[in-house]
């Protein structure tokens, strides 16, 4: 074999290095193109905190209040399982039947790539079920409980201000002094007043039944006597003569709430009860136990406005909605309560079984059709739908033998309240002005970002919308970010950039100390951003988004490269 000299290798060997040296203009074009490709991929690829992992499980919940487990299994769970099993891509179906509730979990086959399509098919099959027993349902289908919120905003009520406490204390002190002018007190007894406050928007009569029961209970137990009721805007209470201490009375109240009061009788908007012995100290006592300023109904209105605003957030360039879903946790649904006396209803010839039919006949919520007038179509809107609780009061339910109409207000007390018992209550705990922990009622708003968007753009758009909302919402309303993915992604990217700067600095330092050549050090330092440029470009082509898993991989790869 003929030996090749160095000149032969130089003249006849062709590789990438030689081509780059002999054609520097092409090399520079490719270098700049690669860097631009990486910059374009980095600025264009989606950014989020967590990787997108398809959820293959869905859950079906069907309530049937009051029904035994066997009936729930036979008449609800089993038919729905058979209907869901008609989908050929189902891998597993698990169900749990309890008293008044059926829970079914569905898992798709691992070979399914388009999970949304199969979940939609299951939803259509569930919607076709119309033969469930009376009282069962509705069928609730959850397929996106695996999605994570890009932003969680906790909206909490502040405590009442000092001005409101002073105004409330003035009314309470006046009521206490008035009732004690006619009170009877023994030689060893002292008058004490138990006061329960609540927001001004709450009607005092809603809290009255609980206070009346406690007044009767505490008198019967012999702890107090000569108990008198006080009430005013935003408060109710009882005043009585007693020899017991404050601690004994509060322990008795706690025992009464645990043993004698049902959960449905505890109004969620009431404040912590306080004891007042000297009317002159009313303001000081209230200041030590301030209540929440806003009721759950007002908090519901505030968060509804936030929900509608965030759903309308769009990207500035093409006006594409960037928010796909906004959910709220801790909302108490409002209901209308009707409290009636069976004897009073019977005295007017009424029947409780006919009340639902009477209300349905009056509460018309169906379309009225279209009327053609002179070639134009006019939509007819029926006016029978209830708009307030007062309209329910005015519903006529019967007529006496003398022809006198009997209205619902004559036999029942109708008022607005909350669903009872509440299914879920949310609270926000923070440090108060006196460095003490305090708890306030709250509602958490979870915001989900549309897939394929950049979390930084999402964060700026939401920040702008919330800044505009603060001009409309009360100034003292508390809004705290309990989970902020835009901030977390920014911190992860900053961590990666710091690692990049450190890597470049280490490469330059080691090359300079090892070879004493600034050209070699410069060439090796340029290789790091060039490699990242190719990496970001390929990530963009392959549809890999920038999230904490890919960032961690880049940091590890950067360490190996160095």
Word description of this protein:
This protein is an alpha+beta fold and 562 residues long. It folds into five domains: 118 residues, Multidrug efflux transporter AcrB transmembrane fold (Up-down Bundle); 89 residues, Multidrug efflux transporter AcrB pore domain (Alpha-Beta Plaits), CATH 3.30.70; 127 residues, 2-Layer Sandwich (Alpha-Beta Plaits); 97 residues; 75 residues, Multidrug efflux transporter AcrB TolC docking domain, DN and DC subdomains (2-Layer Sandwich), CATH 3.30.2090. The protein contains 18 helices and 19 strands. Strands 5, 10, 17, 18 and 19 form a five-stranded antiparallel β-sheet that branches. A four-stranded antiparallel β-sheet has the order 2-3-1-4. A hairpin with a 5-residue loop joins strand 14 and strand 15. This is Efflux RND transporter permease subunit.
Which terms would index this structure?
single chain, about 550 residues, alpha+beta, Multidrug efflux transporter AcrB transmembrane fold, Alpha-Beta Plaits, 5 domains, five-stranded antiparallel β-sheet, four-stranded antiparallel β-sheet, 18 helices, about 45% helix, elongated
In total, how many beta strands?
A: 19
Specify the number of helices: 18
State the secondary-structure class: alpha+beta
Largest sheet: 5 strands, antiparallel
Query: What's the alpha carbon Rg, rounded to whole Å?
Result: 35 Å
What do the pLDDT scores average to? 81
């Amino acid at each position: 074999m003929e030996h090749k000299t160095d000149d032969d290798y130089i003249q006849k060997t062709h590789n990438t290095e030689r081509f780059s040296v002999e054609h520097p203009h092409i090399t520079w074009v490719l270098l700049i193109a690669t860097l631009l490709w990486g910059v374009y991929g980095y600025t264009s690829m989606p950014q989020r905190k967590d990787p997108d992992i398809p959820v293959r499980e869905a859950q079906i919940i069907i309530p049937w209040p009051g029904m035994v487990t066997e009936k729930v299994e036979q008449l609800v769970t089993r038919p729905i399982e058979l209907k869901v099993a008609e989908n050929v891509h189902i891998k597993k179906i698990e169900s749990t039947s309890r008293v008044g509730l059926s829970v079914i979990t569905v898992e798709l086959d691992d070979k399914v790539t388009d999970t949304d399509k199969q979940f939609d098919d299951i939803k259509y099959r569930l919607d076709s079920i119309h033969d469930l027993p009376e009282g069962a349902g509705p069928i609730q289908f959850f397929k996106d409980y695996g999605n994570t919120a890009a932003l969680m905003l906790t909206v909490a009520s502040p405590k009442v201000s000092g001005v409101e406490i002073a105004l409330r204390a003035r009314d309470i002190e006046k009521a206490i002094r008035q009732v004690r002018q006619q009170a009877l007190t023994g030689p060893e007894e002292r008058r004490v007043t138990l006061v329960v406050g609540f927001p001004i928007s709450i009607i005092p009569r809603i809290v009255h039944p609980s206070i009346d029961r406690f007044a009767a209970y505490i008198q019967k137990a012999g702890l107090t006597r000569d108990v008198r009721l006080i009430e005013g805007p935003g408060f109710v209470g009882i005043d009585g003569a007693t020899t017991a201490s404050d601690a004994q009375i509060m322990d008795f109240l706690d025992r009464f709430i645990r043993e004698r009061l049902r959960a449905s009788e505890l109004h969620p908007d009431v404040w912590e009860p306080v004891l007042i012995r000297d009317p002159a100290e009313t303001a000081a006592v209230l200041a030590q136990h301030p209540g929440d300023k806003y009721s759950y109904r007002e908090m519901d209105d505030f968060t509804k406005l936030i929900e509608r605003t965030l759903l309308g957030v769009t990207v500035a360039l093409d006006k594409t909605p960037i928010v796909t879903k906004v959910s709220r946790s801790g909302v108490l649904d409002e209901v209308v309560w009707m409290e009636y006396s069976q004897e009073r209803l019977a005295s007017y010839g009424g029947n409780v079984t006919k009340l639902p039919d009477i209300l349905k006949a009056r509460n018309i919520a169906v379309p009225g059709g279209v009327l053609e007038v002179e070639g134009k179509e006019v939509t007819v809107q029926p006016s029978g739908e209830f708009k307030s609780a007062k309209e329910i009061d005015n519903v006529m339910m019967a007529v006496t033998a003398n022809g006198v109409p009997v209205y619902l207000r004559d036999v029942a007390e109708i008022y607005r309240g909350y669903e009872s018992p509440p299914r879920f209550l949310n609270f926000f705990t923070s440090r108060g002005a006196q460095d003490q922990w305090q708890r306030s009622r709250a509602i958490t708003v979870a915001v989900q970002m549309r897939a394929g968007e950049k979390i930084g753009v999402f964060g700026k758009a939401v920040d702008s919308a919330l800044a505009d909302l603060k001009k409309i919402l009360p100034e003292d309303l508390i809004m705290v970010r309990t989970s902020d993915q835009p901030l977390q992604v920014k911190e992860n990217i900053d961590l990666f950039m710091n690692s990049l700067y450190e890597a470049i600095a280490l490469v330059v330092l080691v090359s300079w100390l090892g070879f004493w050549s600034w050209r070699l050090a410069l060439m090796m330092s340029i290789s790091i951003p060039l490699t990242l440029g190719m990496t970001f470009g390929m990530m963009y082509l392959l549809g890999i988004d920038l999230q904490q898993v890919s960032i961690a991989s880049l940091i590890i790869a950067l360490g190996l490269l160095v």
